[in-house]
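Ticket #4471: structure export looks truncated?
Reporter: QA, pipeline team
Priority: medium

Steps to reproduce: submit the single chain below to the structure queue and open the exported record.
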Amino acid sequence: MNKFSGQILAIEAYGSVAIIDVAVGAHRFTATLMGAADQLDIWKSGQPVCLLFKETEVALAKNLSGQISLRNRMPSIITALEHGQLLTRVAMQMDGLPLFSVITTRSARNLQLAVGDQVEGLVKSNEMSLLADAQDGAV
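Actual output as written to the record:
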């Protein structure tokens, strides 16, 4: 599981859906949360949070250009590759933060991934989860 500490920048909510922007260092991420309106009321602008997302939800791109609907783009450098028969685990660094992706070995070979390559991790906003940061007094 990937986990970044950040702070809520903005919240846009309508009914049972909220789009929450989170700052992690110089990066801005977006999480789309769904639930009862009173469940979404726990999130406040300025609140410290942990942003969580699975390694299997991180798609990788090399030489990505143009526009894309994915808001969560993580420019990274590959630090390690663990090739398995079917899956490859890719370890990366994004401004000193560890980031991991699990993709098919077939895709890793097609992308010709190597340690030191610059890639972008891509995650849809609905795959991001938020957890109230322990320093906020709630878990």
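Status: closed, not a bug. The export was complete when the record was re-opened. Leaving a note from the reviewer for reference: The two ends are 17 Å apart (CA to CA).
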